Amino acid sequence: MYRIGIDVGGTFTDVTLLNSETGTYYTYKLSSTLHDQSEAIANGTKETLALYGVPVEQLEYFGHGTTVATNMIIERKGAKTALITTKGFRDLLEIGRQTRPSLYDIMEDKPETLVRRALRCEVDERTMADGTILRTVNRDEVLRVLSQLKEKGVESLAVCFLFSFLTPENERIVEQCIRETWPEVYCSVSSAILPEFREFERLSTTVINSYLGPRMKMYIHNLQDRIRQVGVRVEPYITQSNGGVMSISSTIQTPVQTALSGPSAGVMGAIYIAKAAGFQDIITYDMGGTSTDVSLVKGGIAEYTTKRKVCGLPSGVPMIDVHAVGAGGGSIAHIDNAGALKVGPESAGANPGPAAYNLGNEQPVVTDANLVLGRINPHYVLGGRLKIDAQLSRAAIKKKIADPMRLSVEAAAQGVISVVNSNMARAIRVITVERGYNPSDFTLVAYGGAGPLHAVHLAQEMGIRTVLIPPAPGALCALGLLTADIKKSYVKTALIPYDQATPEQISQAVLSLMEEGNRWLASENVPEQRRQFRNVAEMRYVGQNYELQVEIPAGLVEQADLDRMKEDFFRAHEMNYGYYNPNAPVQFVNFRSEAIGQVQKPRLAELTVHMETPSGAVIDHRDVYFEESGLVRCPVYDRSKFGRCPRVDGPCIVEQMDSTTVIPPNTWFEVDIHGNLIVNAFGDGKGGDEA
Known about the structure:
By secondary structure, the protein is an alpha+beta fold.
């Protein structure tokens, strides 16, 4: 039997087909169809199965990572949404935290709200800060509001009342009115989407969910129809921003959970590959056609956050803490008004793509710079399926960069690479140095179609000694879909001073969340023996506005556990802020429980062939330009011809269908038992068993 994972990016759609019994997996890449992502998904499924001779009846699992939700928000192409909120709070969505997107740029616009003011309606209800209801919502008033919104052609409703996370009765009355009189409209209520304090973030998350709901529902049904036409009979699972997957019914209810679907899948794939190779502390580095995503993993566990923004809009749902920058293979290089060389964030995407694609783009991009330097095959990519012309890249670099800056074409191309590497290095510093971590303590796991091209030079700039290149770096996000567990997070706000907290209080808060999680896992058909929970408390000093997470032990909490949690909070505070105060009062804020349905992880296939030298994998020699040594004649290896290999010295190029790896001078790599390239970025030490 086989499992298939498909990840849709801004440039390419990646497919991974996994043999469940042998652990062997196959990859395929095709251009994304951004007008309708499901078209590339169906074509990719059909073409991959045909290429590897697998009958569609043997598919037992279908996983999908999507950018539909993100694209809808970026392009403002979601549903016509209305908001029903507490009297006096209709403008909260616009006022927010009264902060500007850029502190020093007074001209920068705030993100456009998803609900225009005419569709923000107030009702006269009030729940107090202690959860008591001062005024019950009036059903007649609600019905009048619904009648007005129906006449305006509203497709989706968001309901968010003050303090409803404590007492949701008023929201439930409104929801009941909607179900009785307007059952076809999509509806989200904040007490179900994010029952957590901080009204602006709760409101924003609820609105995003409603804005996405109708279009996501349409997309999911369209996806189902297309893959059924191909012959797929299993129901697809969709990746969430927290690195887990959920069924299509759960996706339709909470599409906000998929806002960062694709990047999270890549992190889970990187964790799985790295663990198998013996690396627990990693920095994931995903460079695609449009952007670069980086994330930090400590002890095999990804960092999570609930403070992310989606296209400038706050979202309080738990997400893997991925930091993104506009640096990809398609990022356009240009000279700004001050005469400085800039790269990105604007991208040429898949169409028209780099100048080398000969589809009408004359602006040089990062891929064009790599072609000029000889780092990419000058005739074709994607294993020969896409023909390119490196001379067009050279002409674009010369006209737009080299001639205006009075540089040679090679020096101009190297300048483009240096600038984009610096942009990505800054992103890595954000998740490491700025949070108290030393990058040299981590292994860089490089993937995405362009990641291995830049990984070793980027590691050298950051002082990272080891780089891991997975066997199929261009399709690792798709592999991550096949390793992801079923997940959903639950939260409860309870502002409890630490000195007044009892083990019984903490246990009760967590157990109530776990009960909800158990019911959801049962609805996802997860057997009890595969259910697991990860519980955390969010703590802060009294008066602070930000919380830090500490683990809550499984089972009933005891006093010793409370003591340990306080010490864990002190350590986390010192790491994040450089100090802690053992005498200042501490309080609990939120309790979270992540319900996990463990899926059977694929067993990675092992290489059976051992090579003493890499000569059997050489397919060409090519002149490659390196900043440190100039033009060098380098061997070009076909990665598919490698067996286990103790040491391969650079400089050299490793080509494969989905990516190209650059090994600079004075570095070397070995091929491990799972086919990973383990690169020593500083060329010291020994290879193989002597390392």
